C-alpha cells in the first residue's frame, strides 16, 4: 500500500427482503419531524411509499414531503428542500429513491443552515470548501435504484441548470447516511434501461479508482473481484431482470464500489465522470449511459500511459489471452471486450444516442473540470475524445 490513508464509513446497512422492518427501530433514534424526500412518484405506484408512510405513522412522526426530485438533481430543488428543512425544524431526512434523491438530500442537509458569504453551491460544489462546523441534518435512505453508491458515502452531485454546471463532491462522514435500507426487490420495477445504466455507473466507479498507480496494491485485487461479480450478475439480470440473486449481487457491488474501500491508497482518475457531468448538464442524459458512451474512447486515448494496468485489466477481468500479442494489442482487446459487453447489455455507446449535437461538443469540453490519472488531459484533448464518442 503505497500511500497513507484513513478509512471511515459510519453508514449502517440493512440488506435483504425484510430490510424495511428495521426502519421503525432507526426512526426511534430521531426526533418527531421527518422530511420524506422522493422522486417523480414511482414509489407510489410500486407500493413502497405506502409501506414507508405506514411505518412513519406507527412511529408517530410528523411527515413533510419533498417530491419530484428528478435525475441529475437541480440546484433549485436542493434549495427548495433546504428551506423546508429549516422552516420546519426537520430532525431527519428520509430519502426514498435512487442516487439522485440521495445526492440531493445531502445538498439540502448542507444548505439548510448555511450562512456563508458565498452561494452554497459555489462554496461546496465549485470551490470544494470544508464543512467547518456547518450544521448538518442527519439522513437515512431506502434505496430503490442501484448504481451511484450514494447510500453509503458522502458523494453529492448537483446540477446548476441555469449555468449548465454539474458538479460532484465527496463530503466527509457527517454527510454519510446514518442508515440505508437495501431491498433488491425494490429495484425490480425500474426499466431495463435504468438497470443497465446503473450497472455501468458501478463499473465506472470501479475503473476510475483502478486505473491509477503502478504498485502492487491490495485495493486493486478488491476492485477486480467486485468488477467480475458485476459482469457475471449483469449477464444474468439482462436475461432475467427478476433474478433475485443477480440483482442483489449488483446492488451490493454498487454500494461497495464507492464505500471508500476501493479507493484506499489509490491516486484515482475521475475524468470520465468530469466529462459526463458536463455532458448531462447539456443533455440531461442518464448518468450511467453517458459514462458508457465516454469510457471506451477515453480509455483508448490514455491506455498507453498506464499500459501495464490496462494489460492486467484485459487479462484478469476479461480473460484476454496474451499469447503472441504485444502489450498494446492486449490492452486494446480488453477495452474492446468492455465495449462488446456494453452492447450486449444494450447500453448506449455514442453521444448522438444521448441527444448531444456536434455543436455542443466544444462547450461541453471547455466546461469540464480537469483531472485524470495516468494522463492529465486538456480541454482540447477532451474535445477530441468527445468527437470519438459521438457516433
Summarize the SSE layout with pairings.
Blueprint: E1 12-15, H1 23-27, E2 33-38, H2 42-45, H3 48-58, E3 62-66, H4 75-87, E4 92-97, H5 99-111, H6 120-126, E5 139-143, E6 155-160, E7 165-170, E8 179-182, H7 192-210, H8 218-239, H9 244-257, H10 271-283, H11 287-302, H12 307-318, H13 327-344, H14 361-367, H15 379-390
Parallel strand pairs: 1-8, 2-3, 2-4, 4-5, 5-8
Antiparallel strand pairs: 6-7
Helix pairs in contact: 4-5, 7-8, 7-9, 7-11, 8-9, 10-11, 10-14, 11-13, 11-15, 12-13, 14-15
EC number: 1.1.1.1
Protein name: alcohol dehydrogenase
Domain Fe-containing alcohol dehydrogenase-like C-terminal: 196-389
Explain this structure.
- With about 400 residues, this protein is of the alpha/beta class.
- It has two domains: about 10-185, Rossmann fold (3-Layer(aba) Sandwich), CATH 3.40.50.1970; about 190-390, Dehydroquinate synthase-like, alpha domain.
- About 50% of the residues lie in helices and about 10% in strands.
- It is built from 15 helices and eight strands.
- A six-stranded parallel β-sheet has the order 1-8-5-4-2-3, with helices on both faces. Strands 6-7 form a two-stranded antiparallel sheet.
- Strand 6 (about 155-160) and strand 7 form a beta hairpin.
- Helix 11 (about 285-300) crosses helix 15.
- The longest helix is centred in the middle third of the chain and has 22 residues, at about 220-240.
- The radius of gyration is 20 Å and the shape is globular.
- The two termini are about 40 Å apart.
- The mean pLDDT is about 95.
